[in-house]
Amino acid sequence: MNSTSPLDVGDHQHATFPDGLDLECGVHLPALDVAYRTYGQLSARRDNAIVICHAFTGDQYVAETHPQTGKPGWWARMVGPGRPIDTNRFFIICTNVLGGCMGSTGPRSLKPGSTERWGTDFPPITIRDMVRAQYKLVRSLGIERLFAVVGGSMGGMQALEWAVTYPDMMLAVMPIATAPYHSAQNIAFNEVGRQAIFADPDWYGGRYWEHNVVPARGLAVARMMAHITYLSEEALTRKFGRRVRRDPKDAQAPEASLAMFGDVFEVESYLRYQGSAFVRRFDANSYLTITRAMDWFDLAAEHDGELPAAFAGTPVRFCVVSFSSDWLFPTSTSRYLVRALNQAAANVSFVEIETDKGHDSFLLDEPDLDRTVRGFLCGVADHAGLA
Amino acid sequence: MNSTSPLDVGDHQHATFPDGLDLECGVHLPALDVAYRTYGQLSARRDNAIVICHAFTGDQYVAETHPQTGKPGWWARMVGPGRPIDTNRFFIICTNVLGGCMGSTGPRSLKPGSTERWGTDFPPITIRDMVRAQYKLVRSLGIERLFAVVGGSMGGMQALEWAVTYPDMMLAVMPIATAPYHSAQNIAFNEVGRQAIFADPDWYGGRYWEHNVVPARGLAVARMMAHITYLSEEALTRKFGRRVRRDPKDAQAPEASLAMFGDVFEVESYLRYQGSAFVRRFDANSYLTITRAMDWFDLAAEHDGELPAAFAGTPVRFCVVSFSSDWLFPTSTSRYLVRALNQAAANVSFVEIETDKGHDSFLLDEPDLDRTVRGFLCGVADHAGLA
């Protein structure tokens, strides 16, 4: 494992666009970097490219060992030779999102022509800005048209935004465990995470790097809370229940004092591990910037709240996937999306996968998801005469 | 409104028990104070007393203006003359829980014979310890037997614990929106709240009063998160949706910088208000102590995981109430409790109330709840020949 500090910008394969990017907020972002990884081979007809969009805290290391954590790619079980997203047939592109901290331009990047980081001066971005950065990369790779865009959670928001912003750029879009807008509850959880970061004594108004620290405690609290929302009550009960790591009687011993608040229950120990691992790889300002981009996300906003209008006349084939126990992006919202797509006369199929693993199901071993992804992509590819 | 500092112990009506309390952890707590309020009149036969147990952050001010916040009592709509819990017929007792911060002995209290506060030296307590403190008060009021014990959320845990610890002490028990154990998800949320407090720069290892501060930011983060769990997604959507307080374009303006993380969405503003109001009335060490008491709660633990054994032979009449949209203490767990009571051959009825207001429904205007509470209490009272 690489011992990269969470303050390091790191060195990741990337493309640089000296013309920058016009952001939705009106700011021109100069000198855009888009970090990315590809898997498989682009066909001679350049018609087999799939953009995979990562979730909030994911990155471009989809199907290979992560250079910083040493862990397998976040979707290694889904993407590879013979896998549901088959790199023998498809050419996969995954970028680190704009605003991220794995090599794409974001708050941890240096301001152009400066030795100063963006930090909290990084302009507010949107999901559409992320997609427009990806578009620039795709075009720079000589690809006129994608085969598909696939993503889960915030990656699914990007997939939907691709369909809305560039409806002629792809044959198919697969939004998984996602929604066409961020709900009040989603915004509420994001806000608690941000407040936890702001409350950290090492936050320093967002300029923590000047003190050679990161707001690790606040960021860990944010991650711990978010992690609960990624799982279901059933999954937490099955994995941990009320099991304790040490005898409750010890933990209740009078001399223990604050020790009674240590890692007593297994679920606490698990959450703390999740929190501490996260702060070693993720930037607090990226956390703020990206959560805010999610909060702004609402595909109906430009159409007076009429979601079908966002998809009017779309030629894209959609396959919407939800998970029955996902309470962060519930099936009911996916049904709302599917109804809107139907009203827009879009070609859409919908699969609700029965599982008790919650929102994170899209990352886990779910054979029904594998079958759905493989079936949809192969079906569209065969129909389109893809080699 | 009283301008009490969150550091003040305050002066509340209370009973002092110089013999103290033997806690489950083995510590003897000297000089127990139990703060309480009563409503209505104890009958000549002393047979009409109902103990109401408050929820986590509630207190004894059930049906009157709160002396510190100036707000109505937390269950004023339920308790009073002619109300579902009718003070013309019943004598109501509500204590501040052991470990609390409204006058009962807790971490903010002074150690006996000392000018030093307990703080983090306060011994770990359990729900049973809370109930045993209440029992002492009830007996000191000359009451041999209660008519009923009623409570929601953590108050429901206490009501169940009353039935298990003192099965001959009451005719009826009404646990509302609660569970016979704290789930992994419940523990997980509590742990995040505690970590938020520990991360606060004003925590000072739990001795914040020595610095004349309170860990207000961490405690507010804990409260904001907890508050989300008290509501349903539907309730948040209905109350706030994606409404913004200021123009998103302003919030996204480049010069705004950190301002884009201000109170932009109404739900954020609401949560921040909840957080800041809470830290003015609640003690951080009480937050830790009481959440831990909830975490330990598991009525089946003494019976090798067999919940029915906890209620074997109970003469108590139970009415279990749950709310369909409560995801913190879901109906499924109430059904599990009811099955255990049935297996124990207890007299039990069960009402699931259809509502989209989530866990907090027990505090809100729910006519079905009013009817259920009134109907059950009157039914048992009439059956028992209560005046």
UniProtKB/TrEMBL annotation, chains A, B:
Its EC number is 2.3.1.31. It is found in: Cytoplasm. GO terms for biological process: homoserine metabolic process; methionine biosynthetic process. GO terms for molecular function: homoserine O-acetyltransferase activity. Pfam families: Abhydrolase_1. It comes from Acetobacter persici. Transfers an acetyl group from acetyl-CoA to L-homoserine, forming acetyl-L-homoserine. PANTHER family: HOMOSERINE O-ACETYLTRANSFERASE. This is Homoserine O-acetyltransferase. Residues 48-364 form the AB hydrolase-1 domain. Keywords: Acyltransferase, Amino-acid biosynthesis, Cytoplasm, Methionine biosynthesis, Transferase. The keyword Metal-binding does not apply. The active site is at S153 (nucleophile), D326, H359. Pathway: Amino-acid biosynthesis; L-methionine biosynthesis via de novo pathway; O-acetyl-L-homoserine from L-homoserine: step 1/1. It comes from the Bacteria. One of its GO terms (cellular component) is cytoplasm. InterPro entries: AB_hydrolase_1, AB_hydrolase_fold, HAT_MetX-like. Substrate binds at R223, D360. Homodimer. Signal peptide: none annotated. SUPFAM superfamilies: alpha/beta-Hydrolases.
